[in-house]
Amino acid sequence: MSKFSELNLFSVAYKSVDYGFPGGWVDPFLVGEVAVTEQDAGYHDVGQGDSIAGMNPSFGELTAHYWVWKNLPPVPYVGFCHYRRYFNFFEHPNIAQPKLLAQPSPEVMSIIASEAQFQAALRILKTSDFITTRMYVLNETISQQFCVNHDAAIWREFVAVIREISPAFLVDCLDWLDVSHEFRFYPVFITRWDIFDELCSLLFPVLFELRRRIGEKPFTPGARFQLDRYPAYLSERFMMLYLHARRLRVYGAQLIALEHGA
To answer: Residue 177 is part of which domain span?
Structure first.
């Protein structure tokens, strides 16, 4: 058994990148069309098994979350990062910053994928339920921010679907989205498998029903926020609602953001 088997951390990419991951605990995961056409060695095949690979243009990294949820055996802890965004648990002079910018040099990748980072994550998970990004304070509430930057009609339908099909503990907290300015960006996290399982079992039915009602949205060249990715954007808001409703102990970790390879 691998010494890293207690925690599976997947690095999700839409294109083939060779960052090395010398520590061995970061598992590369390819999604989108390239995952089907290239079949890169060393990457999971998201097109096999119970898969929503065809929804990648709108679901993004969520296609990897779904595939892991449906096709891999449970492990004590599971997590996801982005091929350009990784957690850092090391103490250093700039630890107060929510994000550090770095080039994907062998030295940086060695730090990201080191066994010391793995062990630090396990220590944090002994006293925290959920590791994700640091908290940001929005100028608007969570609801207002989505309506202003994305689409108010989609937001109203999103809330309506939650009211119709989600359990009471989530529905009872929906008003919190109208008053909270606290937000954690990006669908990156590490948590226990049972929490991941419940989050997925609540999130995906909402997104599938919403997509059935709204359909696909067109890609808009040059737009900062692409409306065709509304399911992915909404998943971040749903995660915030879930963390609040379940009163989970959340640890906000620093991110290392790689500047090369966007």
So the answer is: 136-250
